[in-house]
Amino acid sequence: MRRDVNWFGLAGGAAIICLIFVSFFVPWWQLVVGDGLVKANVSPLYTDFNFVGYWFTVPLLWALNLGSVLSMAAGGVAMLIYSIYPGKSFSNNLLGFGYKKPLISLLLFVAILVVLTQTIQALFSLTVPLVGSATSVLPETMTYGTIVRVLISANFQWPFYLAATAAGLCIAGKFYHKKIPNLSPPEPVASSATVKEGAPPAQE
Amino acid sequence: MRVLGVFFVLLNVITLVGPVLGVVLAYQDNLKSMVIPPQVENMMSGGSFFTGGKIELPQFVSATPDLAGRTVTLVFEFTNPFNYDLMVKSISADIECSLHGFTLGNASLVEPTNIPAGATSELIIRCTWTEEAEAHFRTEHPSATNIDAKVVGLIINVNDITIQSNEEYPINVPTAGPLELPQFVSATPDVTGRTVTIVLNYTNPFDYDLMIDSLSADIECSLHGFTLGHASLVEPTNIPAGATSEVIIQCDWTQEAVDHFHAEHTGATRLAAKVVNVTINVNGITVQSDQAYPVDVPIS
């Protein structure tokens, strides 16, 4: 007997789990000041900073990252379970819970990066590119009159594109869900007009 | 299924709020550390980010002039206080005479220099004097071997971070002088009358030894400008710092010179001549001089 599987959802769920693992090692977006004197490895799942060889993380960011990891992991597992059993009664809930996770992470991440870079530019007149390189002059209030020019480079790394792929697969899984045959009918809504099975027909 | 829906809503809330709440509880005694970790605070106060001490300006070690190239090589020592290798990619600056504010030349890093974490390395900077600077040394500091100068307009590129300083850094640099001409002492002919040994005195004005490895020149008759022969250094000669030493050169007369003596200086025992086209190798540096050094040579 052939079992219906949502292959898009399955690939999306696997991509999410894969994304979680790789994000601990490769950031989604990396900012480099100079030729590596200062580095920021940023992703919704893990963020750390390097200042002249000293690595550190910000506890609040770490907590937010941990929340994202748990949320994404739950979403990925939900997508995997749903994809294998798309016809079950709980599948709609699993799909609804899981498919939005990578998309929301991706959109929020890009939005935060844009806001952050624009805020830095507005507050410190420091050009922080989202993609590419720029030479910026540090505010003289920070450098005590010395002019300090820094080369700032930033780029999205390949996990970012993996996240986009995962989001795409999950959305495709959501649309494909409607085309899967032998789906269980929607749960009937209980009402007073419902005729119970085995009940005697009403008198006319 | 509603239960499952509620469960997912709760899961969303717990996964997002739980870790933040946990961190807030963990840092409740010092909420600032939640946003600014202790390492960053240390960095701001110059603490544990550094292997020891704070950033200090490079320390001047030595200055060595190169007479041939109108350059002075300055050596500075810089201690890298970070736990990170620093790559000094370029340094450029102008050198000014402290007394007159006259721009003497510019300075630049000889080659990119890596300074390992916590280590001290030498930064070698070469200053090139302009012709105007040499004239300035001769006119304004005629007897000085060293003058006070300052480094201005310093631009340093460290790991692609460019630092442009408005500070002035005092240094003491050797000038090209006072370079005095070698003084003629004596000239002695050998028994054949075809060779003359010329002794010159040279005073080393520098505070380091000079080693004359080779010297070659032509000897000309001062009266007729006739080339009499070729002179060369008898042996490599060391002239200690500040000392005066004899430099002995030997000249072989050509047959044409002997004929010239007979034709133009009949009966003369001595001849006013000059040493020209001098090429001298000092401390591995070859200097070509277009000056003429007067000598009085015996002729047979």
Question: What order do the helices and strands come in, and which of them pair?
Answer:
The complex is a heterodimer of chains A (204) and B (300).
Chain A: H1 7-23, E1 29-33, E2 38-42, E3 48-51, E4 54-56, H2 59-84, H3 91-98, H4 101-124, E5 132-137, H5 140-143, E6 147-156, H6 158-177
Antiparallel strand pairs in A: 1-2, 1-6, 2-3, 3-4, 5-6
Helix pairs in contact in A: 1-2, 1-6, 2-3, 4-6
Chain B: H1 2-26, H2 32-35, H3 38-44, E1 59-66, E2 71-79, E3 86-97, E4 103-109, E5 113-115, E6 120-129, H4 131-140, E7 146-158, E8 161-164, E9 169-174, E10 183-189, E11 195-203, E12 210-221, E13 227-233, E14 237-239, E15 244-253, H5 255-264, E16 270-282, E17 285-289, E18 293-298
Antiparallel strand pairs in B: 1-2, 2-6, 3-4, 3-5, 3-7, 4-6, 7-8, 7-9, 10-11, 11-15, 12-13, 12-14, 12-16, 13-15, 16-17, 16-18
Strands of the largest sheet of chain A, in order across it? 4-3-2-1-6-5
- Greatest chain-chain interface? A-B, 39 and 42 residues
The top-level CATH class of chain A is Mainly Alpha
Mean pLDDT of chain A: 84
Give structural notes.
The complex is a heterodimer of chains A (204) and B (300). With 204 residues, chain A is α+β, with helices and mostly antiparallel strands. Chain A has helices at 7-23, 59-84, 91-98, 101-124, 140-143, 158-177, and strands at residues 29-33, 38-42, 48-51, 54-56, 132-137, 147-156. Helix content of chain A is 49%, strand content 16%. Chain A has a 6-stranded antiparallel β-sheet. In chain A, helix 1 (7-23) packs antiparallel against helix 6. The two termini of chain A are 46 Å apart. With 300 residues, chain B is of the alpha+beta class. Chain B has 3 domains: 13-47, no CATH class; 59-174, Immunoglobulin-like (Sandwich), CATH 2.60.40.10; 183-298, Sandwich (Immunoglobulin-like), CATH 2.60.40. In chain B, 19% of the residues lie in helices and 48% in strands. In chain B, strands 1, 2, 3, 4, 5, 6, 7, 8 and 9 form a 9-stranded antiparallel β-sheet that branches. In chain B, strands 10, 11, 12, 13, 14, 15, 16, 17 and 18 form a 9-stranded antiparallel β-sheet that branches. In chain B, a hairpin with a 2-residue loop joins strand 7 (146-158) and strand 8 (161-164). Chain B starts with a helix and ends with a strand. Strand 6 of chain A pairs antiparallel with strand 8 (161-164) of chain B, so a sheet runs across the interface.
